[in-house]
Amino acid sequence: MNTTFVTEAVQQHDIRAHSISLLGPLVAAAGIVWAILQPNRITLLHPRGQGFWWLAVEPPLLLVAAGIVFTLVVARPLLADLERHRATTR
Amino acid sequence: MQPPAEMVHWLFAVGILFVGLCLLAEALAGRDVWHMRGWRKYLWPSLTFALGLFLWPVMAFFTNSAIHMYAHGSWADALMLAGAAELGLVHGRLKSPLWRFTWPVAFVVTGTAFIVHEQNPWFFARSAFLHHLVGWTFIVGALAPLALAFRPRSAAFQAAFAVVIVVVSIQLFADRDVAPVFGHLSPLAGQQHR
Questions:
Q1: Which of B30, B135, B144, B153 is geometrically suited to a Cys-Cys bond with B114, CB 3.0 to 4.6 A?
Q2: What ipTM does the predicted assembly reach?
């Protein structure tokens, strides 16, 4: 096989793997930036007198949690499978 | 013990964001790799179906008006149908490619429901603005799943589908019960809090 095609395929694969690995951290980072820009949205910083829902549902923290869960549950196994797929099709 | 409406929007935003991220990851990895683990191919269709199920309590408890009830009910139906159709397709029980058209239909029904049940004009308050915006995003964004129905293996169309869903989740995260939008807040909207 032409080595140029192989190199291009490997590079494209690397870009895809890199993009997948970045999705979760980007979402979590967005949550952290949001929390820094609008600290009043983090009710845990001033919990006195707050009801259950205001303590349980805090959008920036939800974003961080979504990013972490996505990375651990979806992205990591997917990257392992992507690597396995590349190894078998090589 | 009922949460404020804005929190319901944020909780749905998390679920919708997760569906969007899964779709984006599937578009990047390719369907063959995504389907390498059995549980993963059912992940986002199941989530979609669950989001449809969770819309029923919203319909039951957030009955501001009859139109709210019809909107949330029709949205629940459409989401459950789209999720169930996708589950059937990935499992192989459903063979007809026509089932893929449930997604654009669900988008149009959802968009219409959003627009119809928002009875205030765009600049009444932020929630009114976002309901109009989400509605039109769904209606215009229905082109992505429509294109995907014709070209189901297109990574570009799947990525476009995912981006529409992620954009909707961002819009839902921006929702507040009483807050200004671009400096506009109708005095009829009530007192802004926090």
A1: B135
A2: 0.90
Fold of B5-189: 1.25.40
In chain A, domain spans: 26-89
DSSP B34-46: HTTSHHHHTHHHH
Tell me the per-residue pLDDT of B28-79, one tens digit each, with 9 for 90 and over.
999 999 999 999 999 999 999 999 999 999 888 887 788 888 888 998 999 9
Q: How far is A2 from chain B (nearest CA, A)?
A: 23
**CA angle, residues B187, B133, B55, in degrees to nearest 5:** 95
Q: Which residues of chain B have a CB within 8 Å of the CB of A16?
A: 28-29
Output A44 or B27, whichever has higher pLDDT: B27
Q: Indicate the pLDDT class of residue A6, thresholds 50, 70 and 90.
A: low
Q: In angstroms, what separates the C-alpha of A42 from chain B's closest C-alpha?
A: 11
Other C-beta atoms within 10 Å of B15: how many?
Answer: 17
Q: What span, in angstroms and rounded, lies between the C-alpha atoms of A72 and A58?
A: 21
Closest residue by Cα to residue B96 from B156, B149, B32: B149
The mean pLDDT of B102-116, rounded to a whole number, is 93
Identify residue B157 by its one-letter amino acid code. F
